[in-house]
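Recap from last week: sequence in, structure out.
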Amino acid sequence: MEYRQLGRSGLRVSRLTLGTMTFGGRGNFRDVGATDVEGARRQIDMALDAGVNLIDTADVYSGGAAEEILGQALTGRRDRVLLATKARFPMGQGPNDAGLSREHLIAACEASLRRLQADHVDLYQVHEWDGHTPLEETLGALDDLLTSGKVRYVGCSNFAGWQVMKALGIAERTSLPAFVSQQVYLSLQERSAEYEIVPAAIDQGLGLLIWSPLAGGLLSGKYRRGQPPPEGSRHAGEWDEPPVYDEDKLYDTVEALVEIAQDHGVSAAKVALAWLLARPGVTSVVIGARTDEQLADNLAAASLELSAEEHARLEGVSRPPLIYPYWHQAKTASDRLSPADLSLLAPHLGD
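Predicted structure tokens:
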């Protein structure tokens, strides 16, 4: 397993992260998975054996059940892993039971620690943007959590590029803690993060953690053009993330994945993960699975390398169109592009 620096921090994390959204199976998360404590122990064993050192969860997963299960499954070996969790979404019916206020963040962190049976989390992430709470307040609350020792590093998730830059600017101006990472959605199914989020992370030195790298299973090879979703899959239920805006493009991508996978004698999922692990700016890819077999297959993606021709084929079938100002920059600014610029524009410069 390769280990990478998490942004500009001194923390080294495995290029694969074990995700726990499948733990619990309560409420809206029943379509994602229902891993119990025994199953969680097995998955953690498999991840540790593969060299994974980061486990990611969130308070909202199954209404706190995922954290509870993870805490029980880690009994006696908490010191072998880095723990990451998140807060922002509603965890109660009260007016202050959601958001990124000082009130909610500190209470949410303390509740997560109780469920996780831990005295600290290694990476505490604000799970979503809160346009009602001043960033100074949010960062101040995170500073208190860092100072108290309850949190070691802080990150964000699902922020737009300008929102990340605003947070980093305020942190520098006020000497409040800066995010070291952002967790975002990026896959062959949906590459919008490459317009602003990925370049901003590269430019500012943020680590990128990628959630749902298989697009909720859409890139597993099990979903095919003109066929109903597999019985029992999350998309056969009420789960609607990620949205699909162009089915033809999705299935063209799946067909390319399946053909490349057949050439290697592996699964389409493994090819999709290998593509993502080689993308600019990506630090670690968060993998989660309903079954041990799925997890074993995903873990094996760390050893798969695709050829330049295979990367080019996947690039061509899934590439998002250049929106303004990027098509203009590709045309007129190619002589002065930074590594952050090239993360998006490089494949287009020969067009």
